[in-house]
Amino acid sequence: MAWLLLFAAGLMEIGWAIGLKYTEGFTRLVPSVLTLTAMAISLGLLGLALKTLPIGTAYAIWTGIGAVGTAILGIMLFDDPATLARLACIGLIVAGIAGLKLVT
């Protein structure tokens, strides 16, 4: 169950990271409220997952899910560059996430 909570927390991290772009510096009400809500949910779910999982593993996986998801959505939504080096680095993060899951 803790792993599921951690995964959901990572998805919410992606949501608030992407949401930050849409808030335009927290000048737009609806995107700002949604972004702050996603932040709160993400941290709350992470906190619940930490009842069971080691902090180092959980935090690294949480940020890794957020980083990978945000980078991919940045490419898809905002035309961020999708260079081979960038994609390889995303792949390394995914490998790190998988490795941490396997050894925990």
Kindly describe this structure.
The chain is mainly alpha-helical. It has one domain (about 1-104). The protein is built from four helices and no strands. It is flat and about 40 Å long. The relative contact order is 0.16. The model has no long low-confidence stretch (mean pLDDT about 95).
Helix content: over 70%
Low-confidence stretches: none
Count of DSSP helices? 4
Strand content: under 5%
* Principal-axis shape: flat
SSE succession: HHHH
* Radius of gyration using CA atoms only: 14 Å
Structural class: mainly alpha
Number of strands: 0
Q: N-to-C terminal Cα separation, in Å?
A: 14 Å
Q: Average pLDDT across residues?
A: 96
InterPro entries: EmrE-like, Small_drug/metabolite_transptr, Small_multidrug_res
Keywords: Cell membrane, Membrane, Transmembrane, Transmembrane helix, Transport
Organism: Nitrobacter winogradskyi
Subcellular location: Cell membrane
Brief digest:
The chain is an all-alpha fold. Helix content is 84%, strand content 0%.
Topology:
Blueprint (H helix, E strand, L loop, with lengths): L1 H22 L5 H21 L5 H24 L5 H20 L1
Helix pairs in contact: 1-2, 1-3, 3-4
InterPro entries: EmrE-like, Small_drug/metabolite_transptr, Small_multidrug_res
GO biological process, one term: xenobiotic detoxification by transmembrane export across the plasma membrane
GO molecular function, one term: transmembrane transporter activity
Annotation keywords:
104 residues, mainly alpha, 4 helices, 84% helix, flat, cell membrane
